[in-house]
Specification:
Length: 423
């Protein structure tokens, strides 16, 4: 019935947006394919919906009915009708495969069907010259900036980009192997939890225990090596820290690993993770350790599919997604750019923020290569000690003082002393 209603509403209103701006295609009209194609071809050729006389001359048996439902209802009902037909067909296929003992194939068909399910889109344009609702959004940001942005864990970076946009951020953190990418990602996760957010971490390589030890080090600055190897000299300090930890954070950090889901996660699994745990932000370590739900074998196509699906997931769930990616081996003599992300240009295109970093002689240099809402190509330097979870900002100096080892040592010591007093 809804297919009949929709075509009648289209003929009555002659509003082409009912087809062209709502992702409506032939697959929505299983009972009226010829009628749909006639209307679509008429629009393509003449720029408008055919009138009823022209339509009935082609389809004299078509039922003309009065439709009083709103456009929004018709769109939602048409999408629901398509999904019902899709699921009914899927269940029949899955049942037949299960009866044949083909469990893996049945699961694949079911997963593919879930990915193919569609959500209704309602296109309502805004005249920005006559609509001042953005002023109210501006006032909200003035009153409570943290409501719209998540702290990155790097104060100086927050001063440039504001933080992660809470509704429109797909950020990429890139570096070469063994530069500390996971440490930077986890520092971001800790900052979000400190802000009271429910943080999710997908760790494609490290166990939840090792992720926990790194988080502990970032918060307490207890030696990570001591925690991993079981150094008893830190036993009392570590116990006191763990006893006080639940009261220190209003947020949470929840870790998902491949072992928990019997293999690498794809974006579909990450969506389930977000929904099950009601996450406010998702951190992914890393792109190359995700599964491509579309099963592409070419590495570039695989990375591109994952990036595209992550972008769609971010738009759908409206939470920040921060993902680690590998830096490729191409030369950076002329500076670091988006082309230095390994495997896929698509990652660079989909990312709203791209951060590269490198470290040498105890100094980590962070490069803001792409930022949609702020100034690009900024550099920040930090004296670091990853074993203690120390990231101490080093102001740039004209005389090269940033590379002065004694100055770095002094700043680190001051930071460690403050940390010991705090815990």
């Amino acid at each position: 019935m809804i297919q009949l209603q929709y075509i009648n509403a289209l003929l009555d209103s002659r509003d082409t947006s009912l087809l062209l701006l709502n992702n409506i295609d032939e697959s929505f009209f299983s009972d009226y394919k010829e009628e749909y194609n006639f209307i679509k071809e008429h629009i393509n050729q003449y720029g408008q919906v055919p009138d009823k006389a022209s339509f009935l001359s082609k389809f004299p048996e078509f039922d003309i009915i009065e439709v009083r439902e709103s456009k929004s209802y018709l769109i939602d009902a048409l999408y629901e009708d398509k999904n019902k037909r899709l699921l009914a067909s899927t269940f029949n296929k899955v049942r037949n495969l299960l009866n044949e003992g083909k469990t893996d194939e049945a699961l694949s068909v079911y997963t593919s069907s879930v990915d193919s399910a569609v959500q209704a889109r309602h296109i309502d344009c805004v005249d920005i010259l006559r609509n001042d609702s953005r002023y109210e959004a501006y006032l909200e940001r003035c009153d409570d900036f943290n409501k719209f942005y998540v702290k990155t864990g790097f104060k100086e970076l927050d001063e440039i980009i504001g933080g992660w946009d809470r509704q429109e951020e797909l950020a990429t953190i890139a570096a070469r192997t063994n530069m500390g990418k996971s440490w930077v990602l986890l520092k971001c996760a800790v900052a979000a939890a400190e802000q009271g957010l429910n943080v999710g971490i997908y760790s494609g390589e490290m166990s939840d225990r090792k992720v926990g030890y790194r988080v502990d080090t970032l918060i307490s600055h207890i030696s990570n090596t001591a925690l991993i190897k079981g150094n008893k000299d830190y036993q009392n300090q570590y116990k006191v820290y763990l006893d006080n930890l639940p009261n220190k954070f209003t947020g949470s950090i929840k870790v998902l690993t491949p072992n928990m889901i019997d293999g690498p996660a794809g974006v579909t699994a990450l969506r389930a993770f977000i929904e099950k745990e009601n996450l406010d932000i998702l951190c992914i370590d890393q792109h190359s350790l995700l599964e491509d739900d579309r099963k592409a074998k070419n590495p570039v196509e695989r990375a591109s599919n994952i990036s595209k699906d992550l972008k769609n997931l971010q738009v759908m769930k409206k939470i920040p997604i921060i993902a680690v990616s590998q830096q490729n081996r191409s030369s950076t003599e002329n500076g670091i750019g988006t082309e230095h992300i390994a495997q896929s240009d698509r990652i660079s295109q989909d990312s709203t923020i791209i951060l590269f970093f490198e470290q040498k002689d105890g100094v980590m240099t962070l490069y803001l290569v792409k930022s949609r809402d702020s100034v690009n190509m900024k550099q920040l330097r930090y004296a670091i000690d990853l074993d203690k979870g120390i990231f101490n900002y080093l102001p740039s100096t004209d005389d090269g003082g940033v590379n002065n080892k004694e100055e770095i040592k002094k700043l680190k010591q001051e930071f460690e002393d403050d940390g010991e007093e705090a815990f």
